[in-house]
Amino acid sequence: MIEPLPLHGPGGHPAHGTDFTAIDIRTTGLRPGRVVELAAVRVHADGSVAGQLTTLVDPGAGVPPGPAHGITRGELDDAPPFGEVLGPLLDLCAGSVVVAHDLAFVSAFLGFEVSDLGVRMPALPGVSTLAVAQSVLRLPNYRLTTVAHALGVPARPGQSALSGARTVARLVTSMVERYGFTFAAPPVFPGLPRFSGGRLLPRGEVATAEPGWMADAVERVAAGRDGDTYLDLLAEVVADQHLTPDEVTALAALAAEAGLSEARVRSTHEQLVTALREIAERDGVVTAAEARELRQVATALGVAGVDVRPTDGGKATRVLVLGTTVAADQLRARVLAEGVQLAKKLTASVTHLVVDATVPAGEPRLARAAELGAEVLDVRGAPVALGFEAPAVRAVPSGGRLPKVLGGRVLMGVGLVLMFIVVVAMFGGTPLAGGIFLAALGVGALLGGWWIAEPAPR
Predict the structure, then answer these.
(1) Hey, how many other C-beta atoms are within 10 angstroms of the C-beta on 415?
(2) How far apart are CA 173 and CA 221, in angstroms?
(3) pLDDT tens per residue, range 158-203
(4) Which partner for 106 in 24, 88, 100, 448 could form a disulfide, CB atoms 3.0-4.6 Å apart?
(5) DSSP reduced 3-state for 203
């Protein structure tokens, strides 16, 4: 249903002036199956919103909605089937480039739903923000929340598909503007079938709680470049700091449905808990709340031997990076990759505030940071100040040795002249004692000049 259209640097077909329609879905499982919620947000290249839709989708009578997204089976009973949602979705996408974070995942689920309807669809051009992020940033993982945080997108995806679609829309327009991406080929917008009618049932917006330590920690959990779908889902579920028995049961069922062995599931659980424990201890400070959350997650996932005790090693390093340049993006990614806490706003727990050239001198948070005792750094010097890189060793200027070199060479010249005089004098009948004296002076001048002019050992 969606054909990937790669983005790359300058030199291709311009992306400015193009409309993008960001799509996010909530599904019943890990592999192509049923969609239970869909949202799409159409934006112009400047980021302004041109239209949006969101709806729950009934996957069929009695089909469970799956974990992690807060949708109940009762809510789906009144929702329209996918066939009633497809028309409004295509109307919104017409003449635009489709964007999804994990484009392959979204395309597979939508393609399954369309094929189940018996509808033949031309391929829509699509962009993956995950693939684009992998090409420009080195991150511990490339989940949507992590990428959004690294690019300073001021929104945290919540449980709803609409929150995710809005975040994807902000990501793609930020990437195009900030990195100057162009299309590898001009996008081709096919004619799309029209469907009459169409019914939508939006899910009520739920105010998401302020993310706690666990949500911050899972952004720093390393994953392979190709990702791990089950690990990503697991991280999403534990990010709310609590695992219910129902969620654990649903996760086990999804893993089995996806063909994951019991050993693979157990290994993934251990991988996540071990990484969270290392992150907690690496911060230098483990609060009682953090230790309690980690033990709860470990117990729920059946991971034994996790003994994290509260410690007080001082104030943990917590960095807030302000700015919209590529350098600011790279530093935010570096902070996450180094396992350091990356703050989303300025609070008393922030130890370092980093700014780039886009931050005005009158930015109120600069003065507030000084009041809170946070160190203010320039983005260029921050990697060294934060301990990510060693200070550059300055080379001794070559001009500093120039006088010594010249002096040594002059002295060597004097020695050569004296030796020449000795040779001439000896042939002219000069007494032996005088010749020896002059020869000694010449040799001394030669050796002394060579010692002065010789480069110092490195």
Answers:
(1) 20
(2) 27
(3) 678 999 999 999 999 999 999 999 999 999 999 999 887 789 999 9
(4) 100
(5) coil
Q: Is the pLDDT of residue 366 over 60?
A: yes
Q: Which residue has the higher pLDDT, 231 or 358?
A: 358
* CATH class belonging to 318-385: alpha beta
Per DSSP, the residues of 270-285 read HHHHHHHHHHHHHTSE
Q: Which residues make beta-bridge pairs with 27?
A: 35
Q: 407 by DSSP, 3-state: which?
A: helix
Gap between the Cα atoms of 262 and 266, Å rounded: 6
Q: Tokens standing for 244? A: 């219910």
Residue 35, classed as helix, strand or coil, is strand
Which element (helix H / strand E) includes 320?
strand 318-322
Paired tokens of 411: 């002295």
Of residues 38, 71, 42, the one with CA closest to residue 55:
38
Query: Within a 10 A sphere around the Cβ of 305, how many other Cβ atoms?
Result: 8
Q: Is the CATH code 1.20.1050.10 the one for domain 2-184?
A: no
Q: Which residues of 178-195 are buried (b: 16+ CB within 10 A; e: fewer)?
A: bbebbbeeebebeebeeb
Specify which residues 125 forms β-bridges with. Answer: 3
Within a 10 A sphere around the Cβ of 11, how many other Cβ atoms? 8
Whole-model pTM: value is 0.81
Lowest-pLDDT choice from 18-22, 59-63, 287-291, 348-352: 287-291
Tell me what pLDDT residue 435 has.
Answer: 65
Which sequence spans correspond to the domains of the chain? 2-184, 229-312, 318-385, 402-453
> Which residues face 311 on adjacent strands?
286
2-184 and 318-385, same CATH topology: no
Give the chain's radius of gyration (CA, Å): 33
3-state secondary structure of 312: strand
